[in-house]
Every structure is written in C-alpha cells, then in structure tokens.
Design goal:
Blueprint lengths: L3 H22 L9 E2 L9 H6 L1 H12 L2 E6 L2 E6 L6 H5 L5 E2 L1 H12 L7 H12 L2 H20 L12 E4 H18 L5 H26 L5 H17 L2 H4 L7 H12 L4 H16 L2 H14 L1 H15 L4 E2 L3 E2 L10 H14 L4 E5 L3 E4 L5 E4 L4 E4 L1 H6 L28 E2 L2 E2 L17 H18 E5 L26 E6 L4
Length: about 500
C-alpha cells in the first residue's frame, strides 16, 4: 500500500526547495548594487513591499543609498533612485532593457488580451495620428458633448439643477469622467438616456474591478475574489464587444483605427473585445482620480481657485448655456491656460505614482551620473519610482509635500521647465506619464479631457467642501505604483449649477 501523504509531502519539499535554492544561493558579486534578500526564503520583502511600497522603498534608500537590489517573490528588482542617472535606463539604445514583454504578460493577466509584438508600435502610431493635432481637436469636441450629456442630462438641466446636491468628490469625478470617456470613445445609440444608464451601470462594475485591481496584479485575491474578477472580465468583454459596437454611432477614430489594424492582422473578434477592455482601462482608469485631486487642491487653496477662475474668464468669457442643453466652450482656449496647466502638472506631481519597469535581457552595466558603475544581471528587473525619487525630492521641488499651484510657472507666466538637483539642470523633473518607451501615448488627450472638466466645474458650478477644515486625505497605500493614486477615504462636497441670468 502506497502512503501518498509522505510521497506528496516529499515532492512538495523538493519543489519548494528547487524554487528557493537560487534565491538562497544568490550573493552579491563584485560591482553589483547592495543586495537585500530579506529573511523569508523566496518571498523576500514581498509582503512589506505590497503593504506600503512608498515606505518600504524610502527605508531601503535610507539603508542602501540610491541603488539597491531587493528580492520580491522570487524575482530581483534593482531600484534606481538618482534621477540624474535615469537617462541610460529610459533611452537604452542597445535594447538591453525590455518593457514590451513585461507589459504583454501584464495585459494578458489583467485583461485577457494576448498582445502581439507589433501592438506597441500600432498603439503609439494611432495615438500620434488621432490624439494630437486635428485628431485631438475632434476628440475634444466629442468629449465636450459627452461631458454635457453626463453633467446636464439628455434633456438639459433639470429644474432642481441649481439646488445644492451633496456627493463624494472622488466618486463624482470618477463617475463623470468615466461615463463621458466611455461614451466619447465607444459611441452612442439613438437613445441617449439609455446610453447614460448603460454607462452608469458599467461604471459600477468598473469601480469594483478597480478596487480589486492592486491585489489582482499581486495575486493576493481570495478564492471568491478570483471568481469575481473572472466574472467581471467576462462582463467587460461582452459589454465592449465588437458586435455590440456595430450598433453604435460615433466610435472614436482613435479606437476605430486600432481595431482596423487588429482586423488586418487577423486578430479574431473575441481578442478584439479584450483589446477594447484594455483600452477602456488605459484611457479611463486615471483621469477621474486625477480630477478629484485637482478639485480638492483648488478647494483647499483659494488663491489657486481664484487664479484658475480669473484665467478661465479671461480666455473663455462669461459662462452661459446654449439652449439649456450644452456647455458653451471655445476649445482652442485649452492652448491658452498656463495657470491651469501648472495646476494640473502640480496635481500630477503629487498624485501620480507610476512604477517604470524594464527587464534586463543580458548582463547590463548601469552607469551613474557620479561615474560609479554597477553590474546588473540578466533576468533581473530595473525599476524607477519617480514619486519618491523625483516628485518628493526637496532639492528639485522645495516643500515637496505642499501644493503650489504656480510651481510650474515662471514669473512672466510662461511654463517653467528649469529645475535642478545638486546644482545640475535635470531633464526628468516630473514624470506622471512615465518616460521613454513606456510613456503614456494618450497623455495629450487625457490632459485635455481633464482640463475641459475642471474648466466646466469652475465656470458653470458652485461647489464647496461640506467640511472646509477637513485635511487632505492620505493616499491609499494599496495604490502605490499603479498610475494615479486614490484617497484613503472619501471627501464630501456640495455642488450646484450656477443660476443663469
């Protein structure tokens, strides 16, 4: 009689031993960065990192300096904290550091989309064509119409629109931007009221997926949550299917261009559905949270609010509603808002916390600005966390935790681009969109979309905090490294459409 318990137990020991052996045997070689494997075999510092990435990396930098390698779940990540040394990582002309394969693995896990090697170029090419120049102007017009529909309703303002309404500021911003973005990108049916209902229902599902997202990426979900995530993925694949989109008008030229490229490459319709889910996330996962921080900072800093309102009046004139159905807005004015541009750049400095990752394809020499060189092993990952190393550096940005609406303005009102570290001019002084090969291809559209929303709010609405003395909430530590941060708790506010003369 075979005793399967001891046999299986022995096999488990062998498997675990094989997994842990390379980590247990790894030691720092000459010229390699400081190595910190942690005390737990294989896991290393994974739990501390996932609990609060910002505090973990701050502690590691204090312990090891500007370059260090840590073990996280059987993988080794070398973090570079000196922004003066970012250039060789971000430019990498030798193709030693790869971003695309890592991104392909991530989108397959999160969205179910099996990316092809040419997708990265295809997305950037479509974004350059349709999210810049005339293409961007056309999409801005569509977004203004969508925001009018979402904020005013299909029949224009309701009779109580000028009465005070109370809501959570984060939920309000996220909901409005998501619904307008979804409708602007994926089109409409002939029934606008039904379109709004569909967008509202989809946002509720999107928000639930969003809440599970960080632990999903880290594979920390419970059994029921794994089932829920799978169901949500399937729901989005259905709701965003190519078949359903055929029934709609006004699908954006940007999305249409990319789907056409996929069809020409022979991508089947089910994979196109998953691509749509990925693009919905990419386009709408950060704009709402960013606008939350922007409006909150304006509400907490009345000098900034006053400056933005004065600029809006100067470039757009007095607010008025045409036929009580849509917002009047001269979109060309978006190019003439240096104060708002600085507000948005400062908001992103304080709120955007992306991690930039590169996979080392072959042994690599990391050359620091100081002249120091470090050997990085093939198979490891090189990581940048600009929020800590750039955005919160007091040498680059004095009083880095303080919101200063004019931080990115020169005294003459032009955009400020000259920032310094250790007396040297620094190129990477604000990195909310990433940089290099991984820079966000839709950044110009995202910024325009957010600026339109902020301007509509300050021009057409009265709004205030329920508790004006409430401090700005801290960042939810679970969101470090995932695009724009989110608050640890909601902020209540009141708003109303300004009474029209």
């Amino acid at each position: 009689m075979v005793l399967w318990g001891p046999v299986l137990g022995g096999l488990l020991v062998v498997v675990v031993g094989c997994l842990c052996l390379p980590a247990l045997l790894r030691h720092r070689r000459p010229q390699e960065p400081p190595l910190d494997k942690g005390f737990v075999p294989w896991l290393g510092h994974a739990m501390a990192f996932r609990k609060n990435m910002f505090e973990f990396l701050k502690g590691m930098r204090a312990k090891h300096g500007d370059v260090f390698t840590v073990q996280l779940g059987g993988q080794y990540f070398t973090f570079l904290m000196d922004p003066l040394s970012f250039g060789p990582i971000l430019k990498d002309t030798q193709k030693t550091l790869d971003f695309i394969k890592y991104a392909q693995e991530l989108v397959l896990k999160v969205f179910g989309y099996q990316a092809m090697d040419g997708d990265h170029h295809m997305i950037h090419s479509a974004s350059t064509k349709h999210l810049m120049g005339q293409g961007l102007e056309d999409l801005n017009t569509t977004m203004l119409d969508s925001l009018s529909l979402v904020m005013l309703g299909p029949k224009g303002p309701s009779p109580d629109a000028s009465s005070w309404h109370e809501d959570g500021l984060f939920c309000f911003c996220y909901s409005v931007l998501f619904k307008a973005g979804f409708l602007g990108l994926f089109g409409y049916t002939k029934d606008r009221a039904q379109d709004l209902q569909e967008a509202e229902a989809l946002f509720a599902k999107f928000r639930r997926f969003d809440l599970l997202f960080p632990r999903f990426v880290y594979s920390l979900l419970g059994p029921r949550e794994w089932v829920e995530v799978s169901q949500l993925q399937h729901l989005f694949h259905q709701r965003l299917s190519v078949e359903q989109n055929l029934e709609k008008d006004g699908i954006s030229s940007w999305l249409g261009c990319m789907l056409q490229s996929l069809r020409e490459q022979g991508t089947d319709s089910s994979m196109q559905d998953k691509f749509n889910f990925m693009m919905l996330w990419a386009s709408q996962g950060n704009t709402g949270p960013t606008c939350f921080w922007a409006l909150l900072f304006l509400l907490k800093h009345q000098d900034a609010m006053k400056a933005v309102k004065e600029e809006a009046t100067r470039v757009l004139g007095e607010a008025r509603l045409e036929d009580k159905k849509s917002f009047a807005f001269t979109l060309s004015a978006l190019k003439c808002t240096p104060v708002l541009d600085s507000v948005m750049e400062e908001t992103l400095r304080l709120g955007a916390t992306p991690t930039l990752l590169r996979v080392v394809q072959k042994d690599f020499v990391l050359k620091m600005a100081s002249g120091q060189e470090y050997q990085i092993r093939r198979g490891d990952k090189v990581a940048l966390f600009p929020y800590l190393s750039v955005h919160m550096d007091p040498d680059i940005h004095p009083e880095p935790k303080t919101f200063k609406y004019n931080r990115f303005l020169n005294p003459d009102g032009t955009r400020k681009v000259d920032f310094y570290k250790s007396g040297k001019k620094i190129h990477h002084y604000n990195m909310p969109w990433g940089s290099g090969v991984s820079i966000c291809p839709g950044r110009f559209f995202a910024l325009s979309e957010m600026k339109i929303f902020i301007l509509l709010m300050v021009m057409y609405y009265d709004f205030e905090l329920v508790d004006p003395h409430m401090p700005v909430p801290p960042i939810d530590p679970r969101r470090w490294g995932f695009g724009t941060s989110q608050p640890s708790h909601e902020v209540r506010f009141r708003y109303r459409l300004k009474p029209m003369q």
